[in-house]
From TrEMBL:
<dbReference type="InterPro" id="IPR050482">
    <property type="entry name" value="Sensor_HK_TwoCompSys"/>
</dbReference>
<feature type="transmembrane region" description="Helical">
    <location>
        <begin position="20"/>
        <end position="42"/>
    </location>
</feature>
<keyword id="KW-0418">Kinase</keyword>
<feature type="transmembrane region" description="Helical">
    <location>
        <begin position="48"/>
        <end position="67"/>
    </location>
</feature>
<feature type="transmembrane region" description="Helical">
    <location>
        <begin position="79"/>
        <end position="98"/>
    </location>
</feature>
<dbReference type="InterPro" id="IPR045975">
    <property type="entry name" value="DUF5931"/>
</dbReference>
<keyword id="KW-0808">Transferase</keyword>
<feature type="transmembrane region" description="Helical">
    <location>
        <begin position="118"/>
        <end position="140"/>
    </location>
</feature>
<dbReference type="InterPro" id="IPR003594">
    <property type="entry name" value="HATPase_dom"/>
</dbReference>
<protein>
    <submittedName>
        <fullName>DUF5931 domain-containing protein</fullName>
    </submittedName>
</protein>
<dbReference type="GO" id="GO:0000155">
    <property type="term" value="F:phosphorelay sensor kinase activity"/>
</dbReference>
<dbReference type="Pfam" id="PF02518">
    <property type="entry name" value="HATPase_c"/>
</dbReference>
<keyword id="KW-0902">Two-component regulatory system</keyword>
<dbReference type="GO" id="GO:0046983">
    <property type="term" value="F:protein dimerization activity"/>
</dbReference>
<dbReference type="GO" id="GO:0016020">
    <property type="term" value="C:membrane"/>
</dbReference>
<keyword id="KW-0472">Membrane</keyword>
<feature type="transmembrane region" description="Helical">
    <location>
        <begin position="152"/>
        <end position="170"/>
    </location>
</feature>
Length: 406
């Protein structure tokens, strides 16, 4: 199989971003609502010019600061402080405008726009920040009305509970994002190590094993070279196995509100441009046919995604390597390709001595990952499965099953 360069692509998104978009819309709608409420009761204000001046400032402020409420990064403490001051000022100016209902239970000049200021604090800093902003808004309502009425307490508690609840939800969401991001990055690192282990097994380890066997057979100085190659093979297998069992710690340098939405492994093969679409599996497997290996496939193309076809062909190559290495140079092998409606099935069978029970688990424990990574690992990465059936004295059969995506 041609060499492929793989990399992990991490796509990040903020799960709290929809809340910021909702807050942006809320601020615009509530400033329009507050102005409409003032216009409908314009004649009852003794000093309407106070309301007009305040609404002019409020409208300009709301529209000018829309970028600040588009996300946590741009929503600074300075902006939040000024925004809360605008809300408190509007509440305290309500009696000055001369609307009697402002001090007898009616709405204040900013009306429900003040809740948007509290929600901005909640989204930025969590429930503690929300509680602080809510208490300040509540205190301003009590001051402008001169007493603590039932309606005042009701409105203050409503804003306080809503702000604290949203702030708490945001804190929980951020903690979950960090946990999920770390888990997905660990998974990505582990998959990359598995891929490297497969590549090492298919190249370096096979060469070292061959040098060891040939050197031992030749004797003399070649035997010493073979012994050294054997030592390096064992050391490299141990290193690969330990690396797979101990994935590195995932990076926790995450921007606030960012989460790994998906981790996608993909290959950039050295195939010519424009050949990364569906690919016929048969030409990838046909070169294995020789005097000792029989290849059987359908008469029509067995189309698969290009990356999946390459991985499946590599798994077949690994299975045949195992035949040559463990069944002997004279062992016969058969490759059967079946193109079913729901899946592509490739079976590799040999007439060797078979695999003793428990040998695969023992080999994996010794760091020999040919079956675990070069075969099963590859099939797992493309959504398939690999089943190995072996009866001592009757050969081994490896069935590779790759479902077709609908």
């Amino acid at each position: 199989m041609g060499s492929a360069t793989r990399r992990e692509r991490v796509v990040r998104m903020s799960v709290e971003q929809p809340l910021w978009r909702a807050l942006t819309a809320y601020r615009v709608l509530t400033v329009v609502y507050a102005i409409g409420l003032f216009a409908s009761a314009y004649e009852v204000y003794e000093r309407p010019w106070v309301g007009i001046a305040y609404y002019a400032v409020l409208a300009v402020w709301t529209l000018a600061t829309l970028p600040q409420v588009s996300g946590a990064r741009r929503c600074t403490k300075r902006f939040l402080t000024i925004d809360l001051a605008v809300a408190v000022t509007g509440i305290l100016l309500s009696p000055v405008a001369g609307h009697e209902r402002a001090v007898t239970g009616g709405s204040t000049l900013p009306s429900i726009w003040t809740a948007g200021a509290v929600l901005a604090w909640a989204l930025k800093g969590g429930w503690r920040w929300a509680a602080f902003a809510s208490v300040l808004i509540g205190a301003a309502n009590v001051v402008q009305r001169g007493d603590i009425s039932r309606s005042t307490v009701h409105n203050v508690l409503l804003v306080c509970i809503a702000g604290i609840a949203i702030g708490y939800v945001v804190e929980v969401a951020r903690a979950s994002e960090r946990t999920l991001a770390r888990a997905l990055e660990i998974e990505a690192a582990t998959r990359e190590r598995e891929r490297l282990a497969r590549d090492i097994h298919d190249s370096v380890l096979q060469v070292l094993a061959m040098v060891q066997r040939r050197g031992t057979a030749l004797g003399g100085e070649a035997a010493e070279l073979g012994r050294m190659a054997g030592e390096q093979e064992i050391a490299l297998r141990t290193l690969v196995a330990e690396g797979l069992r101990q994935p590195s710690r995932a990076s926790e340098d995450l921007s606030q509100g960012a989460v790994v939405r998906a981790v996608t492994t993909y290959a950039e093969a050295d195939a010519p441009p424009g050949t990364e679409g569906p690919r016929d599996l048969r030409p990838l497997l046909a070169p294995h046919a020789n005097a000792l290996t029989t290849f059987s496939a359908p008469g029509t193309a067995v189309l698969m995604p290009s990356a999946a076809a390459r991985e499946l062909a590599a798994a077949v190559s690994a299975a045949l390597d195992n035949v040559r290495q463990h069944a002997g140079e004279g062992a016969r092998a058969w490759i059967l390709v079946e193109d079913e409606p729901e899946a592509v099935i490739v079976t590799v069978r040999d007439d060797g001595p078979g695999i003793p029970e428990g040998r695969l688990a023992q080999a994996e424990g010794e760091g020999r990952l040919g079956v675990a990574q070069s075969i099963r690992g590859r099939l797992r990465d493309i959504g398939g499965t690999a089943e190995l059936i072996s009866v001592p004295g009757q050969g081994t059969e490896v069935e590779l099953h790759v479902p077709k995506k609908k």
